[in-house]
Amino acid sequence: MSIEKSKKTKKNKITKYIIIVVMVLLLLIVGVIFMNLFIKKKEVSETIDSYINENNYESHIQEKEILYDWKQGTYYGKVTFEDEPENYYEIYVNGNSDNVYVFGYNNNTNVEITNKNEGRYIDN
């Protein structure tokens, strides 16, 4: 009986070690994913801030937030300007470049603004 008990104890120890190793690997993978998302958010935020500063828009901003677009798998900025509270703008950074694209939308209808007279901050 002691031989069987010894075998069970060994199997339990091996099982515990395997579970610990798997859990540590899972934690590392999740940590790396979150770290990459955090770094990407910071990079996008810095690029958007640079774009806003280069165009002297910072004093006109009413509200700005960095959001994640799950469909496109990327971060973008959502900005509302004090002089156009009826509109909001989505600022996207193109991939690994510093190219910035700005799309304007009406707050009430969520329809994209394509006319510079209706949304002066859009890119054309």
Describe the structure.
- The protein has one domain.
- Helix content is 43%, strand content 29%.
- The chain is built from one helix and five strands; from the N terminus they run αβββββ.
- A five-stranded antiparallel β-sheet has the order 1-2-3-4-5.
- The mean pLDDT is 89.
Q: What's the overall geometry?
A: rod-shaped
Number of helices: 1
Number of strands: 5
Helix content: 40-55%
Rg, alpha carbons: 25 Å
Structural class estimated from helices and strands: alpha+beta
Strand content: 25-35%
Largest sheet: 5 strands, antiparallel
Task: Note the run of SSEs as H and E.
Answer: HEEEEE
Poorly predicted regions:
none
Strand order in the sheet with the most strands: 1-2-3-4-5
Q: Between the first and last Cα atoms, what is the distance in angstroms?
A: 82 Å
Domain count: the total is 1
Could you report the average pLDDT, rounded to the nearest whole number? Answer: 89
SSE arrangement:
Layout (H helix, E strand, L loop, with lengths): L1 H53 L6 E9 L4 E8 L2 E10 L6 E7 L5 E2 L11
Antiparallel strand pairs: 1-2, 2-3, 3-4, 4-5
Structural features:
124 residues, alpha+beta, 5-stranded antiparallel sheet, 1 helix, rod-shaped
Quick overview:
The chain is of the alpha+beta class and 124 residues long. The protein is built from one helix and five strands, in the order H-E-E-E-E-E. Strands 1-2-3-4-5 form a five-stranded antiparallel sheet.
